Automatic annotation (TrEMBL):
Its main location: mitochondrion. Keywords: Lipid transport, Lipid-binding, Mitochondrion, Steroidogenesis, Transport. The gene is star. GO terms for molecular function: cholesterol binding; cholesterol transfer activity. The lineage of its organism: Eukaryota, Metazoa, Chordata, Craniata, Vertebrata. This is START domain-containing protein 1.
Length: 239
């Protein structure tokens, strides 16, 4: 009875909410349900289908996490209102959520983060290099990222191999991802292969000013190595 009541309440809240997180979450879920049939029609092979599914899974899992508004703990709030929240999930561990308002149009941010992804190291001090290993269709790609060295090299070099899923649904843009493996990029000598995911960036026009962007970033990351997770999590919140 409790489960049925919760489902009924959830549907009613979705109906009343109108445009908002519930609205774009349902849009993405409806569109993503067509993935399998569409992929078969477009002639993807088994390996490509696997990457497509991983990307969709990362997006759906990230959306599910972001849609749950309860249980978040405030980690830090900047003077300008930028806020970092966190939550511990049983099957994922600690995840972080950054919420900011950016003075940029969502299209410009999407072009920079997706279209110019390999140039990220030019402006992001935490990234040394991003390379696209493979593109599958318009929405999915596999990337190799190398993190920049920390001062004093306290945290040694880390790299990531990720499958990324980029979606546009109306005026809302998504960039989700999670760790994967790829034959072009086995583990490198002298570099710790870290893991991430699910991660997701959501870019939505500000209601009051469509030239500004409500920017939400979900981060889940395991840097591996010898440093205790308590220290890593504290540093991640600040970073």
């Amino acid at each position: 009875l409790r489960k049925n009541a919760m489902v009924a309440i959830h549907h009613e809240l979705n109906r009343l909410a109108g445009p908002g997180p519930s609205n774009w979450i349902s849009q993405v879920r409806r569109r993503s349900s067509l993935l399998s049939s569409r992929s078969e029609e477009e002639g993807y092979n088994e390996e490509e289908m696997s990457y497509l599914k991983q990307g969709e899974d990362a997006l759906q899992k990230a959306i599910s996490i972001l849609s749950e508004q309860d249980g978040w703990t405030t980690e830090t709030v900047a003077a300008n209102g930028d806020k970092v929240l966190s939550k511990v999930l049983p099957d994922v561990g600690k995840v972080f959520k950054l919420e900011v308002m950016l003075e940029q149009h969502p299209d410009d941010l999407y072009k920079e983060l997706v279209g110019n992804m390999e140039q990220m190291g030019e402006w992001n001090p935490n990234v040394k290099e991003v390379k696209i290993l493979q593109k599958i269709g318009q929405d999915t790609m596999i990337t190799h990222e190398v993190s920049a060295e920390t001062p004093g090299n306290v945290v040694g070099p880390r790299d990531f191999v990720s499958v990324r899923c980029a979606k546009r649904r109306g005026s809302t843009c998504f960039l989700a991802g999670m760790s994967t493996q790829h034959p072009k990029m086995p583990e490198q000598r002298g570099v710790v292969r870290a893991e991430n995911g699910p991660t997701c960036i959501v870019m939505k026009p500000c209601t009051e000013d469509p030239n500004k962007t409500k920017f939400t970033w979900l981060l889940s990351i395991d840097l591996k190595g010898w440093i205790p997770k308590t220290i890593i999590n504290k540093v991640l919140a600040q970073t």
